[in-house]
Amino acid sequence: MSGARHETGPGRFEPPAYPYDRLEEARHLAAGHDGGVVDLSIGTPNDPPPAAVMAALADLTDSSGAARGYPPSIGSAALRAAISAWTKERLGVSVPPDAVAACVGTKEFVATAPQWLRLRRPDRDTVLYPAVSYPTYQMGAVLAGLRAVPVPVDRQWRIDLSAIAPSDAARALMLWVNTPGNPAGGLDDLAAAAGWGRRHDVTVCSDECYAEYTWDGPPRTILGHGFGPDGLAGVLALHSLSKRSNLAGLRLGWYAGDPDLVRYLREVRKHAGLMVPGPVQRAGVVALGDAGHVIGQRDRYRIRLERAAELVASVGAPAPLPAGGFYLWVPVPGGDEWDFTEWLARRGGVLVSPGSFYGEAGAGYVRVAMVAPLSAIEVVAGRLAAGGGMYRRA
Q1: Whether 377 contacts 311, CB under 8 Å
Q2: How many separate domains does the chain show?
Q3: Which 8-state DSSP code applies to residue 227?
Q4: Which residues, at least 6 apart from 116, have a Cβ–Cβ distance to it below 8 Å?
Q5: What is the largest CA-CA distance in the chain?
Q6: Are residues 110 and 241 in the same domain?
Q7: In a domain, 392, yes or no
Q8: CA 244 to CA 231: how far, in whole Å?
Q9: In which element (H, E) is residue 254 found?
């Protein structure tokens, strides 16, 4: 099995360096350009959020007391109804509001779910996750004192369930899948993942926060593929307004699926005091009821992806467009992703993420996030053209 396993053991825990903190040298190189850094390293949306959402957020005069009292940890009835309606309309799956609950952004859920699930199943000690993926899948396991075991991905960057060792399956507490995938944009077979979980009695958590930016076909969800008459048992899906509606700063996400698991998690999370602020919940209802701003954002990301693909090809690093998501996953000529990262910073004043941030199997690639406006990407193109020449490993 490719990728490093993290085994817990005795001794004082020291957290590893946060991946993006390791980019300071490249950031310094990029900052030397007139006009400064064009930061395409972190997937932080920079486009404006919907005006109606911001108006709802700013309105503190309502009689509901959203800004005064403690908000419901599970999400208000209005928010959960809006999530249920959006799931039916956009994903084609009926999920009752009682099988939905809010979280303080999905990263918080990813990082804490393993410890809550371990309390329920102390006989399981392993978290499985794609070998090229969002780093918090691994860190959530580590922070819970569990084994973090990467699962290889195929040539299309989809998780390869056949590569899971029987011994790891027998110890698995949960399996993470991510569609569209971060960083490479792969689209997993979610029905197959749900079936694998059913056969091995493992909860399958599907991170679907980029679902609105699925380019190859409609958005995919694991909901409806679980067992039982409603297809929800054994699976959880995560969604967020951070990417969909450019509202990362509001920290509003949700999880939906297995009614028994949702009930358990929302009760545990109440005790932990995990609550989305009331005004944010109210603004989320408005965001979920508006599909128009998502259509506009899809167009912006698609145009930027196509232009960025032209840009990296022009310096000798052609990259395919992703099947989903708003990242360009670029194979590095010669395979040294740190050298290419620094070359792009020095020549183009642009900051990207080395592929090894997303697992050892990501080495030899860089991730380019389409979070800056097209005008900023054109600035990078101009700088690279002025520098002349193709990339060659130093």
Answers
A1: yes
A2: 2
A3: B
A4: 264, 265, 268, 269
A5: 64
A6: yes
A7: no
A8: 25
A9: strand 253-257
In a shared domain, residues 185 and 284: yes
241-269 tens-digit pLDDT: 999 999 999 999 999 999 999 999 999 99
Which has the minimum average pLDDT: 21-30, 63-72, 288-297, 328-337?
63-72
- What's the pLDDT score for residue 17? 85
**Is 61's pLDDT higher than 90?**
no
With a threshold of 0.85, does the pTM exceed it? yes
> H or E segment at 24?
helix 24-31
- List, in order, residues 6 or more apart from 80 with CB less than 8 Å away: 74, 97, 98, 100, 101, 102, 254
Mean pLDDT of the chain, nearest integer: 94
Looking up residue 60, the CATH number of its domain turns out to be 3.40.640.10
- Pull the structure tokens for residue 77: 């009835």
Q: Does the residue 91 lie in any domain?
A: yes
Domain containing 174: what range? 51-288
pLDDT attached to residue 355: 97
Residue 122 lies inside a defined structural domain of this protein:
yes
Residue 334 has phi, psi (to 5 degrees) of 90, -20
- Last residue in a domain, options 288, 319, 354: 288
Same domain, residue pair 238 and 193: yes
Mean pLDDT of 339-368: 97
Choose the final residue of a domain: 233, 262, 288.
Answer: 288
Q: Establish if 12 belongs to a structural domain.
A: no
Residues 32 and 58 reside in one and the same domain: no
By the 8 A CB rule, do 180 and 324 touch? yes
Q: What is the pLDDT of residue 8?
A: 54
Q: What is the CATH number of the domain that holds 360?
A: 3.90.1150.10
Residue where the block lists tokens 């009331």: 278
Please report, to the nearest 10 degrees, the dihedral formed by the alpha carbons of residues 382, 384, 390, 394 taken in order: 180
pLDDT, residue 6, reads: 61
Output the CA–CA distances (angstroms, integers) from residue 309 to 61, 131, 216, 312, 374, in the order listed.
Answer: 47, 24, 17, 5, 13
